Amino acid sequence: MSNVDKIRSSFPLLFDGAMGTYYIEKSEKPLPECEMANIFDRDKILDIHKEYLRAGAAALKTNTFGANRRSLRCTREILDTIIEQGYKIALEAVDNVKKENNDSSEKFIFADIGPVPYDSSDDDSFSTLVEEYVAIVDKFLNLGAKNFIFETFDEGRALHEVSEYIKNKCDDSYIIVSFAINPDGYTRKGYSGEKLLEDFALDKNVDSVGFNCISGPGYILRTVDKIKIPNKTISIMPNASYPTVVNNRIFYSDNANYFANTMLDFLDRGVEIIGGCCGTTPSHIEKLSNNLKKHRIQSLKDEKPQVFKVRTKPSSNVFYDKLCGGKKVIAVELDPPADVDIEKYMNSLKRLKELDVDAVTIADCPVGRARIDSSLMAYKIKNEVGLEPVVHLTCRDRNLNATKALLLGLNIENIRNLIVVTGDPIPTAEKDEIKPVFNFNSRLLAKYIGELNENVFSNKMVISSGLNINAKNFLAELNKARKKVENGVEVFYTQPVLSENAIENIKIAKKELKAKIMGGIIPIVSHRNAVFMNEEISGINVDEKIIAAYENLTREEAAELAVSMSLEFIEQIEEYVDGLYLITPFNRVEIIRDIVNKYRNKK
């Protein structure tokens, strides 16, 4: 009988529980990375494996979840030793327990591989990602491993390629791919758990797909009940429960009976591989094993009640409708204040309202400095001033959960025009006090919002993003923009046009991108302002001729030049943009007023 057939004949297959959290609980002086214990605390790892086997587990995960060079910051030689010892310890545990119990039943060892950290915004970083997985896989294959579990993933990049590589090397291998989802059914990077299952269910090289970690069994069960389970072997290995934090340490409740009872519900829904993740112990697995011996599976797989999504009647999006209708719209950016004195700011907004601009864009803590929240400001502007707000939304200061909560609030208030940006980095000197989040980048956030548009929102959120027309390598910037379009971006707001090169890049963008273009214009108000922007503002490149033109000008003369020069740039890009994106310098709305009035008078 083949290895794959042996595993299938063992269904329902019971895996072990947590290694990392249980190792911390068992060890008096646990190592920071439990994978290092394969070398320096070998007996403790061996004992844990044996405890799970005695509890009834038929499948063990090797203690190698974080065994990669990027996580452990180690050499290839040390990593190879960790992997080799991890696999040999699991083999020894199986052999020992079988001998002591005179047990001839099948036990399976799965090479455990977790996500390798990489910079999702850097294509070069991803190009080496598959190579790292392949090196890890090769080490396991050379040790004789046939079974692999890729667990706790928040996206599927690289896993199709790696699974194919394994099958080509060992066609009798068994591969499980498992994703970590929040209670709302999405991964921490914003990918739909349901769509990830559907995607990998179609991969002939993957034998089983499923969920593990982050959520307890009750939350994952709710997700399973809401989604369409694909025709594939399903694996479920939840956390023991939702954790609590005491004195900076994570604790899970002692809920082995609840865990074991709830896990049986998955079997009734067609799940054939079960086990535990963080917080589960041999006690959880033992109680689950005992329940399995008594449980009679009731097939509920095709008996799910249909879930109807109640949605309100869609409302119009005035700004987006104008943009798509061919009107050359005007959006003005006005940064919110850095304190609670907003009288001047509100007066400026009222002047923009009188100017009859089409929208006001609100930056989200630009340059990593705290300002009034852009979403709250948008609500105030829409309701008190009557201007259509376009909200900047960065990935820097919120995790996925906070971002979704914010999007839900914006949507019900019919504030639906967004500019998603990764966000400026926190200044280095402040990183000890202010920690950036960066769970995802603008491309992933756009994709996530697109999925909310499809599955949650009645009123579609219009996804916009930034386009750096001043980038030294504009072709690379263009490739990023194309990926953003693939992920749902419909509008690009460009960086300010302040050079001939920027004009040429806008022309290229208009030709190459299937999206609307809002051409960025920022009036320069002084020679010092020009030099500062050129030297210290990321994404802005001021032509040397422009900088020179402002030398020795009075405030009034510089303002006149700012207006005339902005109009010249507008004239040069107007044919290639769908709207104008005017950025207000230092709250000087009078300059924006003059630009808008003279532009309209010319037309």
TrEMBL record:
SUPFAM superfamilies assigned to the protein according to its UniProt record, in alphabetical order: FAD-linked oxidoreductase, Homocysteine S-methyltransferase
One GO molecular-function entry: metal ion binding
Location of the Hcy-binding domain: 1-292
Pathway participation: One-carbon metabolism; tetrahydrofolate interconversion
UniProt cofactor(s): FAD; Zn(2+)
The EC number(s) this enzyme carries: 1.5.1.20, 2.1.1.10
Protein name per its UniProtKB record: Bifunctional homocysteine S-methyltransferase/methylenetetrahydrofolate reductase
Organism, as annotated: Peptostreptococcus porci
